[in-house]
């Protein structure tokens, strides 16, 4: 049997296993081992499993994932989200749609010290949704804002998705984190503008909140010193700010986790029960991510033997569409896959195949990482999968899926516009990393 036929059978088998709800990491590992054993031999396949597993869990670079997951877990359990929401609401809550704008701002602040879209969406479903409903915001709008705001966790550093992309493609994770800052801030700004425009054209749809005195507004700022300090120290160390020591991404994760722990304990936000819950949550999540990574690496070795990446590169570049035509084709593929697959699984499965095409066409790999994460953000909120939508539904049980999906429509449109802006102006993603290397 030809290697092409084996590769096709491998992909079909993988999708069948996923449809049967076999965990993604296990499915990729099983197909990869079976295919490698068929094309090489069984002994080599078994050695591949052992060596890949050991190398992955002991690799220093891979330590960035559990460290930032632990940092996010401490932050999530310490209740910093409420202070962020209260401070943001103090400044914009009196505007029409101000609670929605405050939610987006607080989501951005929380995402910048958490790094998880799912955790951000779950946290603000409990923090912001009751407030928006109390002031008369429609269910669809309130849940749509939280779903969209939650996606900021995929872009703003320390993003777990960007870290995984960096590991798979062997790109500098620190540069990827820094590259996500401007696109992440752009996302926040465009979401806020979207909410403002909805309130402007539909004044009956979004009520105004209470205007607070300036003294109370600035008083709210003193409560957010912890997340601001944590973000500046971790990301400033990555960027190489002159008043901070320079960190590698793994060191930054360790510093962030230690900092979140110390702040939580000193301020009394983390007790023994919350510390244990944080450790357990981070361990479970890290184990799940590493299982998927190991499976993906094994599956990647199988694809290398079949020469699938090279053949896909030859096929796409031979279509005569030009670099941006091929890029458009890839983006459409990702948008379709985003409707069907989990975001992390989609990246781990497709990037090893698509990345050689991107480098062959001369695109910047750091910029492409940001573009990929933006498509992942879309997949987090649009039907039928929409992981953030399922998370919100699990917290806010009296809202239907159709209501939440209705609320995210304006933000999906906003994300598509932002995607086009980033494609047209790559400097938005590459300028800060270039400055970082210059420093």
From TrEMBL:
Pfam family, one: DctM
Annotated GO MF terms: transmembrane transporter activity
Single GO cellular component term: plasma membrane
Keyword line: Cell inner membrane, Cell membrane, Membrane, Transmembrane, Transmembrane helix, Transport
Protein location: Cell inner membrane
Similarity annotation: Belongs to the TRAP transporter large permease family.
Name assigned to this protein: TRAP transporter large permease protein
Native species: Bradyrhizobium arachidis
